[in-house]
Amino acid sequence: MNTARPSTRPLTPDDVTPTWLTAALQSTEVLPRDTDVISLHHESLGGGTGVFGVLVRLVVQYNKPTSAPTHMVLKLPTAAPENKAVALALGIYVRETNFFSHLAARTPIASVHCLYSDMDIDAGEFVLILEEITHLAVGDQLGGANIAQLELALKEIAKWHAAWWMHPDLDAYEWLPTNDSPVQMAVVPDIMRAALPVIEAQWVERLGQEAVALGRDTADKFEEILHRTAACAKTLCHGDLRLENIFFDDDTTSIMFIDFQMILKATPAQDVQYLFNSSVEPDVWHSHGMRLLHLYHDELIALGVTDYTWSEFWFEFQLQCLWGMVAPASTVGGFNMGDEKGKQLAERWMMRGWLLPTAAHAREVL
Asked: 284 and 321: one domain?
């Protein structure tokens, strides 16, 4: 029988005490009831700060030998007020917590194991404790994905999409949005438009007039684009499929996904586009982009999805290229990106995500 869950949630990593962690891990039977955490400390993990969350490694000692992990990852809401306000409005803490509770076991890909979760969204609080991934290494989003990583990631995400293809259960989850859910409509267009003055003032020389003009025209029609992309929703999508959320082994034969704060019901082209938008250098797109898109589509068809033509996928990919401009725009136009690596990542994301729509001729579907 599970023991009682802790009555409080930590607001900062310093609030995680041995007593609190013992109760949390015993409540989910990760830790036997006769075993206690006797000491712990936390360490920086990948800078420790994401756009919407704080991540630290917990290093734990127990009072007796146990199979429970000694290294785990603590995830809390971001401390940046403007980022947290957006996160709460978009329901991303609810989405990730519910993914582990309801969807992870039904999704046929390798994903990080959740040891404990709790949330009180009215209070703006949530906590996740995840097992640390030690046998794989996170992708280098700043440097960009290589071909082997892209091929493996596309094949694996096709398994995810095929498993949830037109699944009736997706409509039963009221917390699972589409791109035109009311909160998305209320928040996302304003994020895109608020970033434009910064982009027009600072990015024209780097991106070129054509890319910035397309971004401006896209912002003018962003509500329409959200409705159009939502009308294409067919499956469960990861929603934040970028290299910092994917782990690989040394020879790129094993893979694991993390970070499910942005899951939604959408076209599978949303995940595919996002991977290219965030993590693929323009020269890789020009050399291999279309072959890789065909590889993904072929894999989806081979997995039993018979009602999805290449033409339909390509149209949705182009449309998602327009939608996808908002993510990099937000990183340079409003969100606090934290440390220097975060700022460098925002720069590379802009160069990828705002040049891809032109390269994919996305104005054809504007």
From this structure: yes
Contact 45, 73 (CB under 8 A): yes
149 burial (CB, 10 Å; 0-12 / 13-18 / 19+) is: buried
Host domain of residue 105: 13-131
- Domain end marker among 68, 96, 131: 131
pLDDT tens digit at each of 366 positions of the chain: 557 889 889 999 999 999 999 999 999 999 999 999 999 999 987 644 467 888 999 999 999 999 999 999 999 998 888 888 888 888 899 999 999 999 999 998 888 999 999 998 888 889 999 999 999 999 999 999 999 999 999 999 999 999 999 999 999 999 999 999 998 899 899 999 999 999 999 999 999 999 999 999 999 999 999 999 999 999 999 999 999 999 999 999 999 999 999 999 999 999 999 999 999 999 999 999 999 999 999 999 999 999 999 999 999 999 999 999 999 998 887 655 556 777 788 899 999 999 999 999 999 999
Of 30, 45, 260, 64, which is closest to residue 134 (Cα–Cα)? 45
Domain count across the chain: 2
Specify the 3-state DSSP secondary structure of 40: strand
Domain edge (last residue) among 131, 156, 188 = 131
Q: Are residues 153 and 20 in the same domain?
A: no
- What CA–CA distance (Å, rounded) separates 314 from 311? 5
In CATH, what number is assigned to the domain containing residue 302? Answer: 3.90.1200.10
Looking at residue 39, its amino acid is S
In a domain, 224, yes or no: yes
In a domain, 8, yes or no: no
